[in-house]
Amino acid sequence: MLRINNLVKSFDGERRRRRNSPSAPQEARVFAVNDVSFNVENGQLFTLLGPSGCGKTTTLRSIAGLERPDSGTIEVGGRVLFSTKEGKKPLNVPANERGLGMVFQSYAIWPHMSVFDNVAFPLQVKKRGDRLGRKEISERVMRVLETMELANLADRQATKLSGGQQQRLALARALVIEPPLLLLDEPLSNLDAKLRESLRYELKRVQRELGITSVYVTHDQVEALALSNSIAVMRNGNVVQLGRPREIYENPNCRFVAEFIGTSNFLSGNVVSKDGDRYTVNTVDGQIVLDSAANLPMGTDVIVSVRPEAVEVSTTSRQGEVPNEWKGTVLTRAYLGDSLDHVVGVGKHELRTRGNPTTSIEPGTEVYLRMDPAKLVLVPVD
Ligand SMILES: Nc1ncnc2c1ncn2[C@@H]1O[C@H](COP(=O)(O)OP(=O)(O)OP(=O)(O)O)[C@@H](O)[C@H]1O
């Protein structure tokens, strides 16, 4: 449904020109999007995830037609919206002719209109040939309002809605034109945590029910994991990893991704032996064995990423029965409601563990940490 190929968008750097030195050099151009390619299948929710400034919004705005890329191609449903293919005339379909649905962080509903009119407006301003009759508009608006659970508020003035209802209205307005592609830029970030969580599921339900292909921008990894069929993790204008949520969480391909998605312990070491998929890694505090499909030669410097939930903490030893048992001392613990974290000092390392809240061990206690080889991830050194 959506194909992005080799998209590049740069901006002028800041001109450090002072009044007394007008010839001061301009800073290098900022490559907000630097050779980004990805495809989104029909009916999928695809998320661009990354820290502030990594190029998510610029990618989305380029798809929307609100930024003019330097080069690349953008295709929606087989229709080329932007292209700078060599030897061909550049093509750039204006934003208002792309027919895409957009929802932004600031929901920008029209305050002087009712809920119904807000949703009807995009249909009423369609070009004469494409315009629907009054009855058809009314039916379509009410259908979308029902999906968004706003039908009973159709006559209410838009400003007299709660934040969550206003955001649902913004979504209804984007959906009513039945766009081939829906673009969402941090649509939930203005809402409080509880509302954000409930709207997240609502959004997923609507997206799945309507089968609408969507591109979602967020810096919130929990939101990305909960909502997406696929995630592209971005850094400095590049996509560093692209995959399904579980793949990205369980098999981050570099330290940046492992750090950005969830919490991880990192153990530096080097490969001392390899037998099939089973690696042995030496660290300053002991050996670790783990399973990895990576193909790394002996002596390679690596990082072993250990998710807190992959570490079992216990006051009794099973030395000799299971691999990867390390002895340490509990430094702190934190009760998180549905789980309990211990931070355990082992030599030079401090490892965070996460487990059932019924296991709570006093700081200062000597404990044994056990790490399941199948749950550890070998991450190449960046
Ligand atoms: N109009 C502009 N002029 C100059 N630089 C810009 C412009 N828009 C974006 N940039 C720069 O491009 C880079 C990517 O910005 P972008 O807004 O796409 O990032 P983002 O990942 O969406 O960040 P955020 O989550 O903070 O919105 C940043 O370094 C930003 O400063």
The number of helical elements comes to 8
Strand content: 25-35%
Rg of Cα set: 26 Å
Query: So what's the overall shape?
Result: globular
Strand segment tally: 21
Helix share of residues? 10-25%
Strand order of the largest sheet: 7-8-9-3-10-11
Largest sheet: 6 strands, mixed
Structural class: alpha+beta
Mean pLDDT: 89
Q: N-to-C SSE series?
A: EEEHEEEEHHHEHEHEEHHEEEEEEEEEE
Question: What hetero molecules are bound to the protein chains?
Answer: adenosine-5'-triphosphate
Low-pLDDT parts are: none
Distance between the termini: 33 Å
Organism: Planotetraspora thailandica
GO molecular function: ABC-type transporter activity; ATP binding; ATP hydrolysis activity
Protein name: Polyamine ABC transporter ATP-binding protein
Keywords: ATP-binding, Cell membrane, Membrane, Nucleotide-binding, Translocase, Transport
